[in-house]
Every structure is written in C-alpha cells, then in structure tokens.
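Give me the fold.
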Amino acid sequence: MTATDAALIALGERFEKLLLEHMDAWLEWAPRMRAAHAEAKDNVSALALAIQRTGCGVVQARMSELERDMQPLAEEIIAAPVTSLSGLRAKALVALWEALPATASHQGAFDFPDASRSLFEAVAGMTGLLPLVSELEARLEADGGI
C-alpha cells in the first residue's frame, strides 16, 4: 500500500462516519419535510412556519453542518489516485453520498444516474460495501418517501 493510498483510506474512514451520521439526519429530516409540505400545501409562507413547527429546520441545520465537513473530504477522495480496493471503497462512499435522494419525496432507493448504479454495485461488491448499501437502502425504503 502506498502512502497516498493510506491517506485515501484514512479519508474514507472519516468520510464513512460522517456519511452514517448524515444518513441518520437525512432519514429524520425527510418525514418532517414531507409533513411540513403536507401541512403547508402550496403556501410558501406557511411552509416556512411548518418547517419550524415540525423541527425540520433543526435537522436540516445539522445536515448542513455535516455536509460542510464532508465536502472537503469528498473532494480530496475524488482527486486522489487509487491503488487498492480499500481506496476504491473510499471513492464508492462518496458516490453513495452523492446518490442520496435530492428530495424528501423519494422512491426508497439511492438516486444513481443510469449505468452508474451497475458500476457502483460492482465496486460495492468488490469492496465489501454491499451490506452497508443494503442496510441504508432498507432504511430509505422504510422511510417511504412517496
């Protein structure tokens, strides 16, 4: 293992911890945001009040904090060369974060564009991430965003 790959693996480990925290916050945020939208209907000013009333704003602030910590790590991981499966795993974690559904109303799965899903699943299988991906997707599905 090269020093560069060791650094990439360490970044991946830090990123994974933040990703799991972010996922927990996201799964707390999504039903609150859906409730706020249901309460407010199409009234924008009512939506702001509903977001505060449901506690969605607090969770959204926590997600923003996590994202501020995750973004520089993600950029370093993306830029780093890979020479091992563990390094590839770090890159797959960033792809998983980027595939998190963009809205609270989701289809119960990560949002991988087209062929990226197949490539990601191959990488996840080779790097031991499939159990984590399966667990997180089960949590997304249980959230029932639609």
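The CA atoms of residues 42 and 117 lie 34 Å apart.
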